[in-house]
Amino acid sequence: MTTVHIENLHKAFGNKELFRGLDLTFREHQVVGLIGLNGSGKTTLLRHLTGMYLPDKGQIQVFGCPTKDLGQRELARIGVVHQENRFLEWMTIQQQIRYVSGFYEAWDPALEYKLMTDFRLKPEAKVGALSPGDVQKLAVLLAVCHKPEFLILDEPASAMDPLSRRKFLELLFSLMEHQFKTVVVSSHVLTDIEKLVNHIVCLKDGQLCLDLGLDELYERFEEWIVSSREGRLPDQFHDRAIIHQQGDRHQMRLRLDRNLGGDLIEQPGTLTEQGFSVRREALNLEKIFPILIGEAS
Fold first, then answer.
1. Confidence bin at 218 (pLDDT 50/70/90)
2. Which option is the CATH number for 2-205: 2.30.29.30, 3.30.980.10, 3.40.50.10190, 3.40.50.300?
3. Is residue 209 classed as helix, strand or coil in its secondary structure?
4. Domain ranges of the chain
């Protein structure tokens, strides 16, 4: 089933038009990694999903409801961790939790206790005196303890120390199996994204570069290391599947896009038949990302 449906989204800030007819759908059982350079529209898109921003043109529906009409019932099914979290600084952590939990009938005290313990948060600590990492931990707790169906995470672990980040990822793994129907997470830490998601959406300058399952993405791009002990490799290989190549007459690294076809894809034994050694290697998301935004090097 569909959790979010975006159709013909247009959004401008002053004279700068960001989204120009964006179409996108998030479905149940998807854990979506939203990636892109700074300024590509990731945070702006996420803010549209809860009605913080409204489209200039087009429509966005969450749980079948236009975002401009989201009410308490729909918002109670959503959990959000913002890139910049603002809380009542004069409160203690415990007071902040009790204040927020009062809005949710489904608040889970056992999960709250587990996160307080795992994140080493002190109930009596003043919110205004927390480190950026502890503020993020508190934001995660407040976003998940009412057991939302749809979880939105905007750079959720960027300020966490390595131990807290690991615990946070472990938490998400466990909750994803039983709780959330749909998760959208935006992060510059692509290694974290890769551990969590099963789908990738990539934006560049407000436009959609990619909307694809992670496994399909891995299958699409790969790297070939082509070697010749005698130094007989050509200065350059010519094939439409090759999107980048680098090396010398002894060894070349070829990055290929299987969607482009070409002789190397359709006849994979071509290079070995010429006496060259070929080793294939998978590309991780960090290496694929520059290809998606047209900055492969």
1. very high
2. 3.40.50.300
3. strand
4. 2-205, 217-292
